[in-house]
Amino acid sequence: MDFVETRLRVRYAETDQMGVVYHANYLIWMEVGRVEYCRAAGMVYRDLELEGTLLAVAEVNCRYILPARYDEEVIVRTSLGESNARMLRFEYAIEDASSGTALATGFTKHVFCDRDFKPRKLPEKYRALFGLA
Question: Is the whole-model pTM more than 0.90?
Answer without folding.
Answer: yes
